Amino acid sequence: MSDRNENGPLTEAFYYILLSLYPGPAHGYGIMQVIEQMSSGRVHVGAGTLYTALNSLLGKKWIENAPTPESTDARRKMYAITEAGRLAAEAEMNRLEELLRNGRKMTASREGL
Amino acid sequence: MANGARVKKRHTWLSWNYREEEKWLTEQSAAGWHVVKPNAFSQELEKDDSVRYVYRIDYQHNSRNKADFADYLQLYADDGWEYVGTVSGMWHYFRKARKGDETYELYTDRSSLKSFYRKIQGTLGVIGLVNLVLFIVNGKSLVSRYSGGWLWTLGLAGMALYAALIGLLFYGYARMGRMIKQADAD
Asked: What residue ranges are annotated as transmembrane (chain B) (predicted)?
């Protein structure tokens, strides 16, 4: 499967970045922390990976730059999820749900024998 | 040697071997010698036995835009990466004090590692092609103007050196291609 396939699976980093922006705009480090909390410390997105992912999500227009609130250091750019970003995240959730449903069904049918 | 002492050591590296430079700097640091300001050919190291660093080198084309670059450095700093400096404005050196078993990678997934490699490969390819064109144009004018004289011998030696450099760029391009494939196989 190609990386360029728009409807293909999202990387874990892409998926979690999109999810972390649902409550509202955040800066890079905020995103990193939310992802670590969400995954109970399992997923640490490296600085290079996050920076690269943010730039490619901006390129896809799944996220956009948001104004920096006065309480935040102006050096840190803020990011917000777009409508296209929500669609991508929700499409991924449907895909994951299908995987899980089929997984449950097939493993259960073995137990039922 | 006492803390604060400085030495210069020759050490050079090529794009596709950036991991070697990271390793070398980290080893120097393990012996208490830490780089002062990155340089492509030699490194000035300063003694400090109170700390041990892990070095990582990143490649970005973002240093011309001030706001982008400040945001970039801030993000890395937030993740604990101290900026050491740059070589050529595109290779950026970072370090983190080593504590315990933490992982020290800038790139933590395959997709971003591959785009990192592709960025390096793209630059090598473009510089290689531009120089190949220059080489052909200059080669032609050299042949038509100086054929036979002593300048011709000199020019020929220069062109041979130039060809070797271009060869090296394309070799680097191929090496990066192999690293991209390897990342897929891992």
From this structure: 120-137, 149-171
